[in-house]
Amino acid sequence: MINDLIVSLQPFKLGNEALCRREPTLITADTTFQFILDKLQKQDTVLSNQLSKSLRERIQERRTELTGVLIYLQNPKKYDQQETKNTDHTFFVTKKAAIRQEIIRILERVIGVGDNEYESEVFEKTPEAVTSATATGPALTLKEELEKQLKQEKETIKKKPDNKQKDYEKILKKEMACFESDGIRGQYLTLAYNCILTVQPTSVEAKRAFLQQDIL
Asked: What is the torsion angle, in degrees rounded to the nearest 10, for the CA atoms of residue 43, residue 48, residue 52 and residue 53?
């Protein structure tokens, strides 16, 4: 029993080390868990079967469609292979219609409806402000000069809103067709891909930051 325990936990140890690196993605997590489950299945002991069942239940609770979207955006050919051959419901393959809807939700959060890239505050100069700025007045103190320059640095330009809402569904269909044929991601697919890459499969990085803070 002790030997079975050691053998069964070895894949978990290796998987834990792989997921605790700084560059893991949702695909890294998928590959790691598939590796662990494959090794447990080959062991075929009472303990390994119990661990495999528990791990599958946990994956099904936590796994989202974002993983399938990332698989597609990274390699559509691999996605097609998994969609054709996949018989494991634990690692379900997201349908293309669901992929488009997920990407649309990402775009609406990142870009916003109407495709307004710039949402920073606008400081418009009124005629009164221009007049007061050019008029001669009492000399400013050093502190007042500094505050004035700091306020000027906050002035930003806002892009005029485009009230015509884009048909993301139609755009994504075209970009996905081009991506599958020539392997080049379009503007919106690239944006969604970069956003999903920032999703961490574990909370290790946050815990690492707290640990470093405690050490300091």
From this structure: 130
